[in-house]
Amino acid sequence: MLNFDIDPRRSRLRDPRDHLVSSTSRQQKKRTSTFFATKQAEAADEEDDDDDDARPAARSTRRNPEAAQILRPASRLLAPRSSLPAARFSAFRPAVFTQPVAQRRSYAAPSGVKEVTVRDALNEALAEELTSNEKVFILGEEVAQYNGAYKVTKGLLDRFGDRRVIDTPITEQGFCGLAVGAALAGLHPVCEFMTFNFAMQAIDQIVNSAAKTHYMSGGIQPCNITFRGPNGFAAGVAAQHSQDYAAWYGSIPGLKVVTPWSSEDAKGLLKAAIRDPNPVVVLENELLYGQSFPMSEAAQKDDFVIPLGKAKIERPGKDVTIVTLSRSVGLSLQAAAQLKSKYGVEAEVINLRSVKPLDVEAIVKSVKKTGHLIAVESGFPMFGVSSEILALAMEYGFDYLQAPAIRVTGAEVPTPYAEKLETMSFPQEDTILSQATKLLRL
Q: Where is the composition biased (Basic and acidic residues) (predicted)?
């Protein structure tokens, strides 16, 4: 029986058979190599024989154990490279998909406007950034094997491997702290929360570590990290999964906050967030993931990025300004269409896109034109995003307002589970329309 011991110089198990060849004399090496060649030739000749002829050769090998000990390792070395066994863990490492991103697209080829879901737009943004920047990686609960709780990271594990798409335990505090540490070390992590309601478990890592380190280091230590996941109102998930955190994170110095609505928003803002040297919170909406939006030819290109802090006028108008964000943009556009069809009122709908930095210039410029302002959000009425919009409008555009600005917000109540009560807790098309008619005295 062979004994194995530890070779301290090589830090591995040492096999005594390793010295059978290396310790022989030069003449013995020559005889051994001749012996190897003879045995290899005999083995090649015996391949054409039947099984009965091969059995005596096998028995002769068993009679000469020393020859077997020498022959077996040598035969492995002399064997063709293709017959060598695979690496031990190779079966567990997904192959990296090296095909260019533009060639992988089946839904957004740059040849005119295409309909793309928000989910696919986010997936495309992640794939492009993973391809262009080796420092980018994704981690979170179920992001790899399960393709993400909402399938936003679908296929990324197969393309980029398990070193860049990482499943984590169910511990927001733990994996968020790991991501912040990686960002402080120079990497660009994308930290996904299954819902931002769970991110409260990691509020210390987000606020005290990620947001403040750059300032506390005197501008020396950046923290390039992106926090993303579903936020705000969803369907039938009750009080603990429906809160809107835009105002929470928007109040923290050192954090940037974006709230995409359309597919172009989702792709352009996420790419900008990953490239930004500061920590950025990307607040998506669960109900928008499966919704399709037209994506322009420019937005389908790999270099498409939406600058942070720039709002977009989704519908131009001259009578009233409706400033809104996330899913409330679609509801506001529906209300604006009703105002036009019923009253002939032209409402200008502004999609904030970015909560912080806030595009105050775009808001004030629109108020100067229309003279009326409505702020719409799904968050709570007290100390919300809409409150900040109205305060800024009063500071910079008071002389242009023809009537007091108003807010349309979520109700001051934890989100009910019952469907009808849930609907009443958030702004709807009818709510926005009703408040607009009161403001304009229609």
A: 1-20
